[in-house]
Every structure is written in C-alpha cells, then in structure tokens.
Amino acid sequence: KTASDAYRAKIAADVAAGRKPGSCPPPTGTAKVTGDELIAEFRTIPAARQPKLSVNAAFAAFMTKRYPCKS
Predict the structure, then answer these.
(1) pTM of the complete model
(2) DSSP per position, 15-39
C-alpha cells in the first residue's frame, strides 16, 4: 500500500463516517504531483521532526497543504 493509497483510504473513511476530510484532492489519477515537488516538500520538514514522521503522515500533510477543502 502506498502513501497515496493510505491517504485516499483515510479520506474515504472520514467521508463515510460523516467527518470532514482533512483535504479535498481532485479525483484519483488527476492530481498532478511530481516526485520533485514531493521531495522538495519533504525537505522542508525540520530535521528534528523527520525521524518521528512517517512517509504517510508527510504525504498527507503535503496534500492537505496543496488541496485544502473549500469552506
């Protein structure tokens, strides 16, 4: 399971449970995120925080920043 799969599963679970999702990405397969963009974002994570942060959590934070839900 990839970080993207885990991220999408969490959003689906939130919606199914009636909770507001943490972000609102476009439909699967249409988000245009390059590996370079993702690595650049990961590099902004403070060094002290990196060992404690999973790739899944870092990916979710990136997507939340990039695709916030409109109020």
Answers:
(1) 0.82
(2) HHTTPPPS--PPSTTT----HHHHH
